[in-house]
Prior knowledge:
755 residues, mainly beta, Jelly Rolls, 6 domains, 8-stranded mixed β-sheet, 6-stranded antiparallel β-sheet, 8 helices, 43 strands
Amino acid sequence: MPINASQDYKTALTSTIKEEWIFELRNNTYSSGSAATEYIRLATAEVGSGNTKYHGYIKNKPTIRESIDLVASTSKNSNISISCANSTLDNHSNATLSAEIYGGTRRYINRDVVVKSRVGGHENTIYTGRLKSVSIANQDIVNIEISARTPIDFLKIPEHTSNAGNFFPILYGSGTPQTSSVGTHTSDTKFMQYSPAKVFPVMVDSLSNGQYNCLAHEAVTDGRLHYPIKDLFSSDGFPVFVPLDDAQNNSFDDYEGATNDTDKNVLFTDLDLERAYLLRPVQNITITSPSAGVPTNTANFSDNDNTTSSTWNFTAPNGDGSDSFKFKISDISKEEHEIQECKLYVKWAVSNHSENSGGAITSSLRVKPSYFGSTNTVAIDNESGNRTAAYSSAIDLLNTSTFSNANGQIPDDVEIEFLISHNTQDDNDSAGSVTIDAFDFFFEITTKITDTDNLANSSAVTSIKKLYTGADGLDQSFNAGNVVTNVVQMHRDLIHRFAGITDTPENYSALNTARTNWTVFYYLHKQKELLKVLEKTQKEGGFIFRFKASDGSPQYIFLVDSPGINHYITKDDIKGTKISITDFDSLITKRIIKHTRNPINDELLFEAECTDTTNDPRTLYNVQSNENIATEELEILNGNIVNGEEGQTISASNRNMGAGNKNDGYANYYNAIQGNPKILVDLDIVNPGDSSLNKDSDPASDSTYFYLIEVGDICAFNHNNQLVPPFAESFNGKKFIVTSLTRNPGNLKVSLREI
């Protein structure tokens, strides 16, 4: 958005302007500016008289530079250097500039400096900074360095630590806890891999009071701790976590002797980490079909639906014998702690049991677990007639009376066998026929640490360095009671919570709407510079954050799908034009995007390879197989990676980052910036005034002005009065964003980039 200015200042912006810059160096007494001694008045030319005089002591030509980087999603405001005569100040009892600025009773270092443009007697603020340093050169020159004002520099997060020196974490995103517990985990909803927990890691700070004390991010009421099932992943590719039986949902804030310290919240649970869960392995299942009849729909036995079945219609051949249908399950999870229960449940049915004269048919369920290569087969159920669909009684795989080879561990694999035995009085006769329906199977597992009394000898207890919570991440500090869910909300919370920026940044509402489904999953347990976290958030969120040079107010900049135009440019408005295109090396035609952190080891879980098959720039620009490829690691963003899809579910057909709108996803956004060559224009603005579409025909419609232009503004060229066409193209219909500005008194240089 262009800089705000009074109508008087706008009216004064004509082709014949004379521009001066005035500087107000404010001190520690400043409140309203009404007192003459509240600031030092300097200017590029003398303005006013007496105590309100701006002394024309500035010898150099000060420069303001601003820029944004669409690719890095960063901004930069330059420092300003002025060299001034060390002369006396009328409003400070004729003290010299050097004597007033340092060593006197008033303090100027790290105080505000306001720079104003003065045209036709009217002023407008164009820069707000802080006085950072002064020096004296050749006895009569005072050099003053002014830096852009930012409250972010040098801040580190997280802020609060425990007595052990561990940081209370920062967590962003939505969590999903599980709720099963020992003795109550009997419904289908408790299958961990089908209704998986989405959890954040929380670090173990101490083992006091016979419990693990884990540092939490804020007060929570759904913070129940979880532990992972070793090497098991859910159907969406996320690690599987089990809620601990000691269900302490509420955090407490009296840790280490504190009283209601809301900055230091702790989650806790018993040292034994007892947990129980249901497991239905669905991978690495080997099926052995019988010689008589072929079972149908074999996948129904291992899907997440206990109402559908694999059906085996069996007609016995002549004579005595047996046939079987076998499932060998090899993808059974292992546990790190002592197994308390390992039970197998099988749901099956027998129907259409029909015996011929002199024949006998028995349908059986048999189980053969393997423990370190040792096996034995045990008959569980024998049916001599029909059987209503039902689960078998719990098959205890730890019971050595049933399974002589059981060793107290979860079996390496288990073979589930449906056996049909048939006998006849005459070998030339068939015993009859039968149907077996195999509906479902699952394991029930309970485990815990048993040696919790002597911590000195309990490596199982002391080796636990972190547990996991399904509580939501931080609430929005600027919007109480609402969880931070998307990437721009996270950014705003960071600047509000840790930098004290309470003003709503310009464009926040539009950006928040555009990033609604750009969800985040982020955690931080060790200190980082706030600026680095913010810039990482900006990059993954596809937006730029800046403090406006003019007044220091916060602003978001991003490329909207259908941008409006702030300034119209004709060849009469400019000079010194240079037109170019982005170089080939900056072209990114394929993105390999790794994303979504594994809370167990911090590695990225998923990878999506995205190309632009709509425009096909790799073919169009003769890109070789290993050229113009970017591998990117997203540590924050986990939704809308491309085309509005969650990262772990991106199908091959939806990895076309040239489809849809630029704000449909991360890959789409940056493809719009880097996926094809863009026209670049550098120019000098010679018309300080009206930049509206109707400036030539309707002066009364003046609404925008070149001297009020800012980075992030959108420009278009009036192709009816345009400069030389860009190569074989036209400026007609093209829009450009201002990526850099360089201001001097009476001069303005602008760089534009096609969008």
